[in-house]
Amino acid sequence: DPDPEPEVQEEEEDVEEESLVQTYIPRLVDVAGNKASIPRDTVLDVPSWSVGHVIRFLEVNECTNLVPAFKEKAINGEQLMNLTKQEIMSLSQNKIGPCLKFENLQNLLKKMMTSMQARQYART
């Protein structure tokens, strides 16, 4: 009989992978530039995002031109939220359009996180 323990470990690994997949990556602005709304009970824990989550966020929000620089610098969620204008300019190769677009997305994320955290505290 094969030892059942490795099966249990594999299941745990699968659960970890699923939780990464289930992390909510919001599309904040639609093609026309209108702000998108996210579901009311969505937990947006940007500081816990991995580099992969940040890349997915850039792709979903049509900032694919920034992906190579963010991958190279291994920007995770916490770093994403703390990028300065100067760092964003550097990552966007001093192109003002991508810089402004990303700054807008970063500000929208901060506002959403703040309002969600406020709602969570209001419930308790």
Query: What is the makeup of the main sheet?
Result: none
For the terminal residues, how far apart are their CA atoms?
51 Å
Strand segment tally: 0
The proportion of residues in beta strands is: under 5%
Low-confidence stretches: 4-20
**Number of DSSP helical runs:** 6
**Structural class of the helices, strands and pairings?**
mainly alpha
- Shape from CA axes? globular
Q: What Rg, in angstroms, do the CA atoms define? A: 17 Å
Instruction: List SSEs in N-to-C order.
Output: HHHHHH
The overall pLDDT, averaged over residues, is 78
**Which percent bin holds the helix content?**
55-70%
Present the secondary structure layout:
Layout: H1 5-21, H2 51-60, H3 67-72, H4 77-82, H5 85-91, H6 96-123
Helix pairs in contact: 5-6
